[in-house]
Amino acid sequence: MSEESNEDDPVNQGLEAEADAEPIEGVEPATPVENDGGPSDAPPSENDVEVEEEPRDPLELAVERAEQAEKEIAYRDAEIQNVRKRLMAEKAEVIQFGGMGLARRMLTILGDVDRAMTGIDEDDESPIAQGLRLLRNKMWHELQADGVSVIDAKAQPFDPSKMEAITTIPSSEHFEAGHVVDVLEQGYMYKSKVIMVARVVVASE
Length: 205
Description:
Mean pLDDT: 79
CATH topology of the domain at 100-204: Nucleotide Exchange Factor Grpe, Chain A, domain 2
Distance between the termini: 142 Å
Strand content: 15-25%
Shape: elongated
CATH superfamily of the domain at 100-204: Head domain of nucleotide exchange factor GrpE
Strand order of the largest sheet: 1-4-5
Radius of gyration: 51 Å
Largest sheet: 3 strands, antiparallel
Oligomer: single chain
Number of strands: 6
Helix content: 40-55%
Low-confidence stretches: 1-6
């Protein structure tokens, strides 16, 4: 009876047919699937276990943060002091040398007056000559009151920070080499700064 039931059972017949079937040409038989490295049931190693940090003392953290804040405040305070000093120095320089531009313009006009007076004799008492002398004296008085002074250059050692050598001549017994022989155009100081260099002739070696 069992043999008849097997023969009549379609499921068993299909399985037997698959087992007896010959491989089809060009189709490779299925291979068993290997382990693809996925998660396994093996227990984790010591390296895989995360070590939890011990909680720090709240008082220690508070002290550390307070010290850091104190350092930042000191650093910023030093920066503020440096900026304040720089601003005060700049302000003092502006106050001290604020009139330098005006003095330079007045000296330019004074130079024009001096050039106009070169063709006038000292004993010329004409209204033009007297007017130019008066104008020159008043301008120079105001400039001196504002801190302008003449650069003393003639017969002095050549100073490139205050003088410009226009030409040179051989030295002599009257003028040593490197000294100013003549002043072609007067130079001026405004307080402690050079406002106009003196253009000079220098004795050479």
